[in-house]
Amino acid sequence: MTNQALFAIGIFFVTYAFIISEKLHRTIVAMSGGILMILFGIVTQEQALQHIDFNTLGLLVGMMILVAVTAQTGIFKYVAIRAAKAAKGKPIRILVYLSVITAVASAFLDNVTTVLLIVPVTFSITRQLQLNPLPFLISEIIASNAGGTATLIGDPPNIMIGSAVPELDFMAFLLNLTPVIIVIMAVTILCFVLIYRKELVTSPELSAKIMELNERDELTDPALLKKSLTVMALTIIGFMLHGALHLESATIALSGAFLLLLLTGEHYLEEAISKVEWNTIFFFIGLFVLVSGLVETGTIAKLAGEAIKLTGKDPLHTSLLILWLSAIASAFVDNIPFVATMIPMIKEMGALGITNLEPLWWSLALGACLGGNGTLIGASANVIVAGLASKEGYNISFVGFLKVAFPLMLISIVISHLYVYLRYFIW
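RESULT FIELD:
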């Protein structure tokens, strides 16, 4: 291993240690780690820029602007009251409803968009019931990543795999991944109920007050609501058709955001821009550059290559190794560069004699997407929700999230392990 690779690994682990310790703000730490990769010559500035996923950043900024303008219509409070009333004001039932809504929405949007829409609803509900929102937010993070695994358009790793393997179209993802995700979500929701049943208790009076609320009173600006929902619907349709339109999700999100600003007038611009989570955006930039050091020095490729050698190219063992390796790696490293490294490796294995690569692709998708639930920095949605919570005065700590999420991630991978084994090698 070269000195540069050792430097890259050292910077990576020191940076992550500071992020986990929470002694400094994670954005400052991540950006500092990324800058050190450049200062030590591990990557050039040009290489660092190439590794920054501007599609992810553009998607985040566009959706944050859309949500900021739409929130002024009162629609999120309206949805919050409807959901709470449907659940009879019972906190555990509300948590289950919001988890299911988040998972389903994440399958047909992307999970980042979904949490940007659902988190304001969650804060509205928890304020009404005087509850700690963190159990709801953690449940929604896990549900968003699980739900996003179910379809081609739900999570960036799936989009990358579908792009690299054209025969794996929307229906292929739906038929191969949705069944196991339904099982995983059912088990996960049961775990949520067991974990939080004692914590989420409110008074009958607060529940009764929820039932007395008139959700229509929250819709304060019908004209803005009509414009916002129209643009939001067009944006969602754009996400679903982005492959046919040959447009990246960032282009669609930013087009929707500025179309809405064009329709509503410039007096919404400054407030919408101020609502963008710039701390989160720069945190992602720092992480992308930090991971670029591992990619450019060949560390990630070497790790994946050595792991695959252990299987002797056996399809079953290789599939299961990819599943577990992807899950553990994606819990600590952004899954986008990891998947980018694994795709050519799996293709090369096909050239070396493994005739049926399909189980390997599904294992990669399940491991990379579900593995993002393992830690607070494992997936984009996790970081976004943590940033939104921080703005509201609530801290989702790295260790606190890890205690709940990592065991649930392992359970989901065990279920996926059984599914891959039974469906592709037994049945």
